[in-house]
Specification:
single chain, alpha/beta, disordered N terminus, SGNH hydrolase-type esterase domain-containing protein, Lipase_GDSL_AS, Ester_Hydrolysis_Enzymes, phosphatidylcholine lysophospholipase activity
């Protein structure tokens, strides 16, 4: 392992200067200044050789009862699938949690303030809206995911990197100093997939979103390695999306070279968002809800009954089945065991076949030995639990969509035509109130009537 990079090398005096990128002269972000450094190729090599590749997931954050969590990012966060999953899992995992999660992602943005020459309009800088969007929510935890756009789809360049570095450091300073957050979680950017690269401008004369640099993921990899070093700061936590998603891509492409997580090379599909959510959930110390240990009283020679109250399990979207299986095998998907106390069946052999039903529906066939060892409820298709998890996720996703659209309308240019009936403030408030009630009902534990039948 290489020695840690001297943090003093990465410090810069902030000055108000502009930066010429691909022929376009762009003013820096408001309240963000940067110093352009000219570094010899020899020094570049020395610095690059000294990066420290951190662990994929660093120190975690414990979510408290009233914590407000704000996700702050670009179009990947705006898409929001991973944000919806995290909130659904948090509601299921922490019945005592009464906080909220807000999505404050906007497409095309950067923290660096850079833009391609042909990007019309120029890319906005997320720091320009920080004061408007984050402090009013009084966040306890800010989850930041930027970087995909910050290298503007070019090969690595030190000036662009320093602009990104300054933007990230400014975001951290303002998160603690202005938004008064207690913790900041930084997610490294998801990978850029050259196999899925789409060039919309075949006559481009320079790199950019319309004609990305083929190995742009190398740029994101360098950015991610630096982000991992920020976990050394107090109350800053870093989750390595870039590393974990690339690891799964490499694993799956050993047997399926066309496998991908981002159909357009940039924006993750459902499986990609699942991987993002898993990393974010681990950073927030989330795990599957506990399940009851069941004592099954005998009431006949072959039929045993029990009733339990089970928490809603994690909702699992339609993702890559091999990924799901791998998560379970490796223990990355926390799954508490449901174990029946079958002391009255001590004389029965472990290989005795049994049938398990839940609320009159068959959910499992196996052996008595397997049941004695404990079975993982989340891996079973238990209709009432699965249905509850699906309804909870649907309500969370619907609320997020309505809330997000209302937020975007709040600062959009005013239209001359009146708003649609469902978009008036009163209608939005009514919809959100109804969804809040549905969410509270759907997160409640579920009574399950079990029947164990010896066969």
């Amino acid at each position: 392992m290489h020695p840690a990079i001297d943090s003093s090398v990465l410090q810069t005096t902030r000055t108000q200067r502009s930066l010429r990128i691909s022929g376009r002269r762009r003013a820096p972000c408001q309240s963000l200044a940067r110093r352009l450094l000219t570094i010899s190729s020899r020094l570049c090599a020395i610095l690059l050789a000294s990066w420290v590749i951190g662990q994929s997931v660093m120190a975690q954050v414990d979510v408290e009862e009233h914590d407000v969590i704000v996700f702050y990012g670009d179009s990947i966060t705006q898409g929001g699938q991973y944000v919806d999953l995290v909130e659904t899992w948090l509601l299921a995992s922490r019945p005592e949690w009464k906080g909220r999660i807000y999505n404050r992602g906007i497409s095309s943005e950067t923290l660096s303030g850079l833009t391609e020459a042909d990007h019309k309009p120029p890319r906005p800088c997320a720091l320009d809206r920080f004061t408007r969007d984050l402090p009013p929510l009084k966040p306890t935890i800010i989850v930041s995911c930027f970087g995909m756009n910050d290298g503007i789809y070019h090969p690595f360049d030190w000036n662009r990197f320093f602009a990104y570095r300054d933007g990230v450091l400014s975001m951290l300073d303002r998160s603690f100093g202005e938004a008064l957050a207690e913790d900041v979680i930084i997610l490294t950017p998801p990978p850029f997939d050259p196999y899925q690269r789409k060039a919309s401008d075949l006559k481009a004369t320079h790199f950019g979103y319309r004609f990305p640099y083929l190995n742009y993921d190398d740029t994101l990899g360098t950015y991610s390695q630096w982000l991992l070093t920020l976990s050394e700061r107090d109350h800053v936590h870093v989750g390595d999306l870039h590393g974990s998603m690339n690891d799964w891509l490499a694993r799956r492409r050993e047997e399926d070279v066309s496998f991908h997580l981002a159909p357009d090379a940039v924006h993750p599909n459902t499986t990609g968002h699942w991987l993002m959510a898993m990393t974010a959930a681990k950073m927030l110390s989330l795990q599957q809800p506990d399940v009851e240990r069941v004592f099954v009283p005998g009431n006949s020679e072959t039929i045993y009954r029990a009733s339990t109250t089970e928490n809603v399990p994690w909702f699992i979207p339609d993702v890559d089945e091999k990924l799901l299986a791998w998560h379970r095998e490796e223990g990355h998907l926390p799954q508490p065991a449901w174990q029946a106390d079958l002391s009255e069946l001590d004389d029965e052999p472990d290989d005795r076949q049994i049938r398990l039903t839940a609320n009159n529906e068959e959910v499992w066939l196996g052996t008595l030995g397997q049941l004695r060892d404990g079975i993982n409820l989340p891996s079973l298709e238990i209709p009432p639990l699965k249905a509850r998890a699906e309804k909870l996720h649907q309500a969370v996703a619907t609320r997020r969509k309505i809330e997000y659209q209302a937020w975007r309308r709040s600062f959009a240019p005013q239209k001359e035509t009146p708003p649609k009936p469902e978009e008036t403030p009163e209608a939005v408030a009514d919809q959100l109130s109804q969804l809040a009630t549905i969410i509270e009902v759907q997160r409640l534990p579920v009574i399950i009537n079990w029947v164990i039948e010896l066969r």
